[in-house]
Predict the structure.
Amino acid sequence: MSKNLSLTKNNTIKFALQKLHGEYGKILTVVDKNKSLIGVVSSGDLRRAILSGCNLNDRIEKIYNTKVSYVFHEELVKKKFNKSKFGSESLNNSIFYLPVLSNQKKVKDIIPVERVLEILEKKKIEKKTNLSNKLPKILIVGGAGYIGTVLSSKLLKKNYHVTVLDKLMYDKKIIQKNFKNKKNFKFINGDVCDLNTQIKSIKKIDMVVYLSEIVGDPACSAKPEDALKTNYLSVLSFANLCSHLAIDKFIYTSSCSVYGLDKNNKLLDESSSLNPISHYARIKIMSEKALMSSSNNYFKPTILRLGTVFGPSKRMRFDLVVNTMAKFAYFKKKINVNGGKQWRPNIHVDDVADGIISIIKAKKSNIANQIFNLSSEKLNYQIIEIAKIVKKVFPTAKLSINDSSLDLRNYRVSSKKIKQKTGFVAKKTIKNALTNIKKMFIQKKIKRPDSKIYNNLLSLK
Ligand SMILES: NC(=O)c1ccc[n+]([C@@H]2O[C@H](COP(=O)([O-])OP(=O)(O)OC[C@H]3O[C@@H](n4cnc5c(N)ncnc54)[C@H](O)[C@@H]3O)[C@@H](O)[C@H]2O)c1
């Protein structure tokens, strides 16, 4: 292990990146000609070096850390260090590593910090170490939105460090109301289309979740140039920046609307042909392609094609099918359906966040350069079926069906691939979300349901 993870001062940054394989948290030891430890480098050190102008052929000599924590093998042995307990399994699952040295300061091994603490202090690591320092630091671009606020809350609860970059297009007070003074949380109020903001936000980040866009068919059609700029050009430049810095994971939320119109009602998987019928979906495809082509040995993005999202969020949206029907059913006692035969995959916003977290936690080789549908076979519904579920939760509302529909989208998707690769399965149902949205209405948590802050198109007009 130590042999594989050792460098000399003369090795290049490129060689170090190859050795780390972009894995978060591992370190490389730097040794002299006698194989004695003289320093370490981490993937963070390599990224900071590139950002400050080093190139891939520059030598490690320029950037390695000489102040190193380490532990002597002898100390571990005295404390009954049981090698079998530290097999490759525990090494691979751990995040932070410490060099183990012989008395002559030769590198014998590297082992997870928590194991060292366990041995030396004979205490369980959970009590001794600050968990958040061992987790990757996540940037959520567009983190003040419908999905972003749910994802941020979940990650903070799990002790991740979260930075949100957002220009607060909808509810200007959303961050102040929900995340002010939260531990491990940082907010950058800025536009991702601005290159200075991009560079500012990426410092000290290990992984990126990219959610910021002009979201939805109507909003993109109303602002086509903004959509091109935000949803394509800035995705492209941000991905290039992350590629340059060898960011460990880049997770991009695309949409199942890329499948557009499928007349055969087949269960579509990630290799099915695409048939976009909106500006929004066409740009999604351009961004997917651009992302895949920006991948290299150190940067391997992951794309999630989300079904239509439903359920309560701190930044509520009432321009999504389930949520909109709930709003009309409660406040206007009406459930209007246009057409209704169209098939659509759906997914609860909590499950979207959990799906993204499953990618954050996944073994990189399982998710690198991969596209995944994110919904569930059980959540493919015709719009009329959704309306009937809404009617059950809001029984006093009147269901009214209008045969004509302007929305031609029709697609059913399979989400088997993400289950196979990460074990993720969407758990929450539409009925479950409707019950909670109804509670929000009854408790008067939504005071002005028609306010434009809940509707992307109205906000942009
Ligand atoms: N909600 C859905 O049903 C759904 C379905 C499929 C895919 N998606 C995708 O998920 C992602 C997030 O969607 P959402 O529902 O949370 O949308 P949202 O509109 O609630 O959130 C988008 C956020 O991005 C921010 N933003 C937009 N342009 C920005 C810019 N130039 N700079 C900085 N911030 C900017 C907005 O202020 C907002 O907070 C999008 O990529 C969307 O295409 C959503």
Q: What stands out?
A: The pocket of nicotinamide-adenine-dinucleotide is lined by residues 142, 144-148, 166-170, 191-193, 211-213, 215, 230, 253, 255, 306, 308-309, 315, 317, 320, 456 (CB under 6 Å). The longest strand covers residues 249-255.
